[in-house]
What we know:
alpha/beta; 11 helices; 360 residues; single chain
Amino acid sequence: MRILITGNMGYVGPGVVRQLRAAFPDATLIGYDMGYFASCLTHVSALPEVQLDQQIFGDVRTISAEDLKGVDAVVHLAAISNDPMGSRYEEVTLDVNYRSSIRVAKLAKAAGARSFVFASSCSMYGAAEDGAKTESSTLNPLTAYARSKVFTEKELEPLADQNFTVTCLRFATACGMSNRLRLDLVLNDFVAGAVASGQINILSDGSPWRPLIHVKDMARAIEWAVTRDTGVGSFLAVNTGSNDWNYQVKELAEAVAAVIPGTTVTINPDAVPDKRSYRVNFDLFKSLAPYHQPAVSLQEAIVELRDGLSAMNFKNGEFRDSTLMRLKVLTGLQETEAITENLEWKHKLSKLSQTELESI
């Protein structure tokens, strides 16, 4: 089996590569990534990409049919990955996350691929105070990032058929330690604050609901989706997470403080209400993938982040202005004129074999 993983050099990608290599040891794994965050390594002893057979540095906006030749499955992670970046680069977000996703899927189908796994998001439910949302609930995307996921799912559905399985994993908010850690995620932000300064500063009033999922459990779900049973249909959009991981933001902060003694929690009672509040029902995913259910607990995720940051000697109380925030990385690349205003590299991208990766 030949699997192409786009966006493999981001936050989720290293765990996905590790999971797929363990699950399919004889598979040919190919990474395809723009490389924005390739240097953002955290607490690693070896480059995560050494588990690949090949790494292609490329822009999904210009991916070619040749790049997809002979591919059996595509795991499509590549995206402008959060709301701050989506707000700053709204048109680019729609181009990368939506238009390019459809293009990749069409090229994959034409090349004979049988499975397309799309990293979608529960954020498409938006403001949802009236109970846990199911896959049939009304979508209410409030940001460019969320809208891009809705648009993509809608246009992926008619591409699916008996020879081309499409699975849209509507992931809860990611969290947990990674070889390319991001701190612009709610739980990761709280643990970083507790470790660096003993303080968690909640930017909202703490009341919004967020479902969470650990990056290791995202990788487990992706493994399932690559070869899932098509008995439920060639197209599937499924909430991916656990009912036990629906939390209010203030509950997450309190959980971190309980694990890291001496942590103080402050909220902003004058904050503008955060409309991005939603609880999600994950019953369908539990019924379809009983052997690939989330296995990491909230406490385990917090402890892992604490220990990982401590091992990095992390002490930056101003981490929200650091390169552990993805928007900061992109703006830094623009300031040095390495990338254009459309987030395109000004130099030519290339391909690396496994031997070349191991020599880095």
